[in-house]
Design goal:
There is one protein chain. By secondary structure, the protein is α+β, with helices and mostly antiparallel strands. The protein folds into 2 domains: 163 residues, OB fold (Dihydrolipoamide Acetyltransferase, E2P), CATH 2.40.50.90; 97 residues, Nucleic acid-binding proteins (OB fold (Dihydrolipoamide Acetyltransferase, E2P), Beta Barrel), CATH 2.40.50. A 5-stranded mixed β-barrel has the order 1-2-3-6-5. It has a 4-stranded mixed beta sheet with strand order 8-9-13-15, with no helix packed on it. A 4-stranded mixed beta sheet has the order 10-11-12-14. Strand 10 and strand 11 form a beta hairpin. The chain is globular, with a radius of gyration of 19 Å. The chain starts with 47 loop residues before the first strand and ends with a strand.
Length: 278
Amino acid sequence: MGDRHNPRRCGPDWRPFRQTPGIALCLLALQGICGAAEAPATPCPAIETRISRIAAIDDRLEILLADGTKLRLYGVEPPASAEGARVSADLRAWLGDHDLGTEFLSTTVDRWGRRVARVFPTAENRGGIALSVAEALIDAGQARVRLEPGPVACLSKLLFLENKARAEEAGLWADPANAPIPASRREAFAERGGQYVIVEGRVTGVGETATRLYLNFGPIRTVDFSVTMTKATIKALTGFGVDPRALTGVRMRVRGVLDLRFGPQIEIVHPAAIELMK
């Protein structure tokens, strides 16, 4: 999967990540059609900022700081275990034991003792790269975007970079097994239950109950792929100017954990899980 002639696709050589200055971002990531507006300089204000020294990076790309603080990179879905060790080794080689600029986005730790943070290389080891560590990983195709609570704008640049890396078949996107699953391929879902997946297809119909709305991607419920959402998610999407009840015929990309109990489906809990496509 590594291409030694493309620094965006290989191990030790992905240190010189490509900078992306002045990119046109789609702040409403779910629309999937970007305008000319730039992302706000600080779309997700940090709760605390400090300079920290790295002690270790594990195969899930979690960073242990010298003071004992454990970090989870905001917006990063780590690669599968087989790739995680390689990506972790490459990341350690790039960052070395230098200091990091750390922006904490939470005051508390999760049940694994981690704090969520954005992490930035300092000037001495960034190699001229103006991206955060998470942005650099995703730009190089070494990880996928993880949906996080909070404003869609917090994830818009990461989604932009992921879409670009996928279009260029960078990193993990060079493997067809990682490509988005076509919604029409019923058989492709059988072995993916419980996995984080990306699915692309056209909505063929919309259904609704007292508590949920369903976007159907085929004629047979419980057999064809579908997307479900609660009333709260419907309200959130409507707040962005997207009426979920009017999406019949629309092509979209959705992401989340695949549930097979009632047919292949993903429950949408974050607006950024849906990207409308041209």
